[in-house]
Fold this sequence. Notes:
By secondary structure, the protein is mainly beta.
Amino acid sequence: DVPTVAAIDRLGPFGQGNPHVRLVARNLRSANPPRRVGKRSEHLQFMVTAAENAQFALGSILQVVGFNKAKWEKALESGRHFDLVFEPTLNRYNGSTTVQLVAEELAVVE
């Protein structure tokens, strides 16, 4: 949620010797088909939700952006469950603040 990510942000400034916080969420599934964005369609935007036995509340849906992660598109469209390594960030747009996960790694759960 926004207050938690704001608290993480207060651990900054981030850089050499103080890396950004990265977390893992297990047993997720895509809540919508991924959308390619960027000049060369090299990035992905998608929403994730918890599958059964996931680490966050069932019904929660979070926005994810994967920079240079277009290669994940087919895995996300398959409907399979996956684990995600991400950096939690706050997306401030049009006077609204929401949580956005910046994806680093994705592992499909077999």
